[in-house]
């Protein structure tokens, strides 16, 4: 739809959700390039778009609108639906699904455990885990980097952050991946089964830290238990929910980002070798990869009052997605947005981790994990390349959920 046209629906007065028909179709799992082409079209000619998919939702596609919405958490609420498609059982866990002020103590408790000194201190342990988890693919001469190495290593990042027992890592990797797939399939029974397993882990963790609290700067469960907003502890079941969320938030994006980066580096062997020879380039390269291959398109908000943008009104009730992946390819902000380029002057403006109150709490840990994973892969191989077709992620993600590689180990 032309943005200057009169809106087709939602006069905004009553605020009732009104079916507006579909300007785009985000269902299916097309190649990431097709998803990006869809958003390019929306940015150009339909910056506030509606789809009937997933029960009806809106999407913003331009950088400025997405950033402004993420930064305005009084208008764009997270407590109704924070993701499209949402949890098929409608469960809400903090901090992602809470608005301020309820959100604040959970977020403060997690932030306390993600300070730079602590995160940096995890690097040696993570490097050892990465080397061990890459071994099977090196021995086999290849494998699916998103589903094998890329899925198993993030479980160790979570285990180290939450101070879980090492035998939890493989269970978590398996359970989280089944849970994510069931969510994408909107299969409530399977979501429930795997979610319950993770709830059990979260409950055991809370019970353990109640018995033996650890230093709050180093232990998320102890930090949540120590919070005293208004002089009272947080509700136990909500602490369990926050830890249950913490078990999976770091498991979804890294495999997709790694799959997408390896796909790119398979097609640009010169860059692959340059990064292998110059690891000091990795932090900036990773940041540019995060911009180019931002894994999320389905984080959502619900407006607290009707909001009109570009001649269309988003009514109260239907969620609106903030596709950070689209924002980061907006050519009015990033020159040649579909090209990987080192030395972008405004790279720090990218929205891969969101913005505002819900900006990724695990950002430093996510960066460290990706850097260690990629560095290990480059260090331990002489070369790698794609061995087959990649599989594209479905909503709420975008990128490579499967990326089969051939690896040549370093002699
Ligand atoms: C490449 C990896 C990652 C990416 C791209 C990513 C991205 C994001 C984004 C875009 C949000 C904002 C959601 C919104 O706007 O509604 C978010 C939230 C969050 N992320 Fe991450 N994330 C990553 C890894 C991690 C890791 C490793 C952790 C573990 C500590 C983590 C913990 C969280 C938490 C707790 C939230 C909710 C924050 C809140 O609602 O206050 N993330 N993430």
Query: How are the strands of the biggest sheet laid out side by side?
Result: 1-2-8-5-3
CATH class: Mainly Alpha
For this structure, the quaternary state is single chain
Low-confidence stretches: 1-19
State the major sheet: 5 strands, mixed
Order of H and E elements: HEEHEHHHEHHHHHHHEEEEHHEEEE
Number of domain units: 1
Which range does the strand content fall in? Answer: 5-15%
CATH superfamily: Cytochrome P450
**Annotated CATH architecture:** Orthogonal Bundle
Rough shape?
A: globular
| Count of individual helical segments | 14
> How helix-rich are the residues, as a percent range?
40-55%
Mean pLDDT: 93
Separation, N- and C-terminal Cα atoms: 56 Å
Ligand inventory: protoporphyrin IX containing FE
Keywords:
binds protoporphyrin IX containing FE; Cytochrome p450; alpha+beta; 10% strand; 411 residues; globular; single chain; three-stranded antiparallel beta sheet; five-stranded mixed beta sheet; disordered N terminus
Question: How would you describe this protein?
Answer:
- The structure is a single chain.
- The chain is of the alpha+beta class and 411 residues long.
- It has one domain: Cytochrome p450, CATH 1.10.630.10.
- The protein is 47% helix and 10% strand.
- The strands form four sheets. The protein has a five-stranded mixed β-sheet.
- A hairpin with a 7-residue loop joins strand 10 (391-392) and strand 11 (400-402).
- The radius of gyration is 21 Å and the shape is globular.
- The N and C termini lie far apart (56 Å).
- 47% of the residues are buried.
- The model is unreliable at 1-19 (pLDDT under 50).
- It binds protoporphyrin IX containing FE.
């Amino acid at each position: 739809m032309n943005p200057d046209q009169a809106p087709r629906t939602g006069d905004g007065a009553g605020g009732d959700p009104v079916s507006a028909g579909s300007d785009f179709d985000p269902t299916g799992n097309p190649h990431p390039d097709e998803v990006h082409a869809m958003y390019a079209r929306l940015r150009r000619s339909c910056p506030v778009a509606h789809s009937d998919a997933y029960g009806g939702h809106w999407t913003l596609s331009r950088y400025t609108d997405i950033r402004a919405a993420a930064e305005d958490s009084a208008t764009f609420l997270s407590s109704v639906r924070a993701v499209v498609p949402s949890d098929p059982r409608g469960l809400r866990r903090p901090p992602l699904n809470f608005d301020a002020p309820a959100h604040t103590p959970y977020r403060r408790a997690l932030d306390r455990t993600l300070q730079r000194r602590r995160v940096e201190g995890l690097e040696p342990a993570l490097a050892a885990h990465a080397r061990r988890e890459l071994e099977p693919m090196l021995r086999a001469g290849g494998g699916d980097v998103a589903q094998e190495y890329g899925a198993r290593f993030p479980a160790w990042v979570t285990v180290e952050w939450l101070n879980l027992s090492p035998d939890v890592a493989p269970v978590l990797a398996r359970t989280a991946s089944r849970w994510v797939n069931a969510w994408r399939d909107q299969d409530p029974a399977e979501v429930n089964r795997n979610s319950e397993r993770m709830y059990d882990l979260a409950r055991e963790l809370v019970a353990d830290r109640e018995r033996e609290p650890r230093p709050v700067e180093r232990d998320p469960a102890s930090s949540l238990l120590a919070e005293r907003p208004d002089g009272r502890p947080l509700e136990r079941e909500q602490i369990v929910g926050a830890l249950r969320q913490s078990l999976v938030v770091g498991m979804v994006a890294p495999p997709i980002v790694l799959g997408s980066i390896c796909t790119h580096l398979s097609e640009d062997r010169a860059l692959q070798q340059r990064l292998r020879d110059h690891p000091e380039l990795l932090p900036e390269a990773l940041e540019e990869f995060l911009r180019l291959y931002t894994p999320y398109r389905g984080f959502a908000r619900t407006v607290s009052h009707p909001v009109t943008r570009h001649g269309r009104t988003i009514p109260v009730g239907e969620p609106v997605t903030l596709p950070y992946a689209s924002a980061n390819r907006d050519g009015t902000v990033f020159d040649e947005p579909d090209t990987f380029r080192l030395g972008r002057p405004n790279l720090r403006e990218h929205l891969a981790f969101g913005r505002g109150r819900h900006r990724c709490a695990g950002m430093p840990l996510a960066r460290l994990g990706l850097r260690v994973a990629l560095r290990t892969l480059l260090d331990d191989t002489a070369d790698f390349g794609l061995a087959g077709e990649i599989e594209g992620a479905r909503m709420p993600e975008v990128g490579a959920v499967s990326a089969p590689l051939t690896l040549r180990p370093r002699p």
